[in-house]
Amino acid sequence: MGTIHLCAEQTLVNGSTGDPVLYVDYVDSDNALLFDAGDNAALSMERLADLRAVFITHHHVDHFIGLDRIVRANIDSDKVLSIFGPPHTIQKVYDRIRSYEYQFFPIQKIVLDLVEIEPHQLTRARIECTKRFPPPQPVSEPRTGRTIFSAPGLTVEAVAVDHTVPCLAYALVEAPAYHVKSTAIADGALRPGPWIREVAQRLAASPIDDGSVTIQGLKIPLQQVAQQYFHRAEGGRLAYVTDTVWSDTVQSDLIEFCRGANRLYCDCFYAEAQANSALKHKHMTTQTVAELAIRAKVRELILMHFSGRYRGRYEKLVDEVRGRFPHVSAQWA
Ligand SMILES: [Zn+2]
Ligand SMILES: [Zn+2]
Description:
Layout: E1 2-3, E2 9-12, E3 22-25, E4 32-35, H1 45-49, E5 51-55, H2 67-74, E6 80-85, H3 89-98, E7 111-117, E8 121-128, E9 139-142, E10 147-151, E11 154-160, E12 168-174, E13 177-180, H4 182-187, H5 195-205, E14 212-215, E15 218-221, H6 222-229, E16 230-233, E17 236-241, H7 248-258, E18 263-267, H8 275-281, H9 286-295, E19 301-304, H10 314-322, E20 328-329
Parallel strand pairs: 1-16, 4-5, 5-6, 6-7, 17-18, 18-19, 19-20
Antiparallel strand pairs: 2-3, 3-4, 7-8, 8-9, 10-11, 11-12, 12-17, 13-16, 14-15
The chain binds zinc ion (2 copies).
């Protein structure tokens, strides 16, 4: 039943060449996560409506233009959508929200939980549609540790990086857990239902629970359901690092942040030949990406945010990294 892979279903929405946008979903949960809010036109409104939290690295247009579709997809939902980002996120999201005219139908119940992340504090503001989006009243609290978000079975961590504006990197940490096998659901006799969550929680509490569970009127031994329908995930780490230069101020933090990650999604804006541009515009290069992956001992590296100047020869960027770090790939949308 064991696996060392991440359980997150990951979609690098625009591949390695467009705006970096990573959509993360779990088969047995309807709480999806989104890293960055750039162009997300390739994501359906249905998938955006499943979001529980959005993690914005910074407010450059290629990381923020997609906020409008996120709001549009969720405005009618009776839910709390958390939006994390660097300083000024609260005001910038609020300004966008206020730029629309609202009918304020009673069905529009969205609550936005806005959180600004700084090294030693978190600043929160909650703005609610039913209250007609009054001006935010931010409240700060001390921050201890790297974790900024928790949900059942996972946490998200953040660390500051070194870009031309305040910018964050994020890591998704999966706890060891039991997950339903979607193929077993498709092939098996049991229909999906609340029993999936119940069994997962009971196995997490006690993997040798020898009780039974009632599913669709049938009393079935828990271990039998576990064997047929569940697998145990060992937990893992996914790091999302973009729009940073490989400077002395962030190297050790980033190596520590990405240490042992099962998968690292990383900015690879420039080839090594453009290292001076990378310093000026504060991006990574094929050389610095490889150095981060090697020193952090990540298992797999996926490159993203290739500069459009390499159009037609993007593979050369992948080859440059592969020369130093073999477990690297790119994705083509
Ligand atoms: Zn940027
Ligand atoms: Zn960017």
